[in-house]
């Protein structure tokens, strides 16, 4: 009996070991984390967080360079590491900042874009946007533990689905302080397949019209990451990403400007309270700089990415050594 038990333990150990080797050499845990490791090892001076805005290009663009590539064309003085990925937000950035703070090689500066839409239920509560695997890998301090992620997930020691699809659909949607429905209405693809003024208006409301408060979990993550940066001696710059405010105002009315300005000001006040500079670029770009279908998106065309690169160079890179 004991002999069988020891053989079983040995078998399990070998299987787990092979899984670790397989993942380590053939299945990178995350391309973005691998890039981040590379930037830290090579002692890049600047790490640039971000979502899809950084790398998105329109099919009509002649120049499809990312925002970071465009910054490098303007100012090649600094090495800039791009760790952007679609739907990343302050929750992921918090885990990244914790990971960077434990590295022996830390960047001189970290640039953090914050999108107003990332606080909406559309983004904040979407199950696919929770990135629990990435957060587990970045936050775990036990050697080799990240390579056992699938094993832990199978045993349900890691919650890979913190928000179910049903919970997402039942999430309240607000217009100011008033609840106007739940996510299920705004995620009805059949209804919104028809591009109407009413549907466009509803999507702008869904994306931007809920007030951001101190209790929002993305605000908590923002404060945590700024605290980690301050304690680690890492210089951080935050900016609010541009949005197509003119179309928002056209379809929603003056309420759109009132709410988005209040939300942007609230975020910057939180940042400034943590002794970090905050640049509000939310209302700096005309509609011509955006590349999106009828429904709202912060994606920029090549002219928009170029303008953003110029602003980041002027507001941030030109101040680094001051």
Radius of gyration: 22 Å
Low-confidence stretches: 20-28
Just give the CATH class: Alpha Beta
> What percent of residues adopt helix (DSSP H or I)?
40-55%
Distance between the termini: 72 Å
CATH superfamily: SGNH hydrolase
Give me the CATH fold name: Rossmann fold
Strand order within the widest sheet?
2-1-3-6-7
How is this structure best described in words?
The protein is α/β, with parallel strands linked by helices. It has one domain: SGNH hydrolase (Rossmann fold). It has 15 helices and seven strands. The protein has helices spanning 2-26, 31-41, 67-74, 90-101, 121-124, 132-139, 149-154, 165-169, 183-186, 189-192, 197-208, 217-232, 245-252, 254-273, 302-315; strands at residues 46-48, 80-82, 109-114, 172-175, 178-182, 235-240, 277-280. The strands form two sheets. Strands 2-1-3-6-7 form a five-stranded parallel β-sheet, with helices on one face. The protein has a two-stranded antiparallel sheet with strand order 4-5. The longest helix has 25 residues, at 2-26. The radius of gyration is 22 Å and the shape is globular. The termini are far apart.
């Amino acid at each position: 009996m004991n002999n069988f038990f020891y053989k079983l333990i040995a078998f399990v150990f070998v299987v787990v070991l092979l899984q670790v080797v397989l993942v380590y050499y053939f299945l990178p845990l995350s391309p973005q984390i691998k890039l981040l490791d590379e930037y830290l090892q090579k002692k890049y001076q600047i790490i640039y967080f971000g979502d899809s805005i950084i790398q998105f290009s329109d099919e009509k663009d002649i120049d499809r360079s990312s925002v970071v590539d465009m910054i490098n064309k303007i100012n090649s003085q600094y090495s800039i590491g791009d760790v952007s990925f679609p739907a990343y937000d302050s929750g992921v950035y918090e885990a990244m900042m914790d990971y960077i703070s434990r590295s022996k090689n830390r960047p001189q500066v970290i640039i953090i874009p914050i999108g107003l839409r990332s606080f909406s239920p559309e983004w904040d509560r979407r199950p696919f946007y929770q990135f629990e695997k990435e957060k587990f890998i970045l936050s775990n301090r036990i050697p080799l533990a990240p390579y056992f992620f699938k094993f832990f997930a199978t045993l349900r020691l890691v919650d890979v689905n913190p928000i179910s699809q049903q919970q997402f659909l039942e999430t309240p949607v607000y217009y100011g302080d008033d609840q106007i429905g739940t996510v299920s209405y705004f995620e009805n693809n059949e209804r919104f397949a028809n591009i109407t003024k009413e549907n466009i208006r509803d999507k702008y409301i869904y994306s931007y019209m809920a007030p951001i408060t101190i209790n929002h979990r993305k605000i908590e993550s923002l404060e945590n990451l700024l605290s980690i940066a301050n304690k680690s001696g890492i210089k951080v710059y935050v900016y609010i990403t541009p949005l197509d405010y003119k179309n928002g105002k056209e379809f929603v009315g003056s309420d759109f400007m009132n709410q988005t300005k209040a939300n942007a000001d609230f975020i910057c006040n939180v940042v400034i309270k943590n002794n970090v500079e905050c640049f509000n670029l939310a209302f700096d770009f005309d509609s011509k700089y955006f590349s999106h279908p009828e429904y709202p998106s912060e994606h920029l065309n090549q002219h928009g990415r170029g303008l953003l690169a110029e602003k980041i160079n002027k507001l941030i890179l030109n101040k680094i050594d001051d």
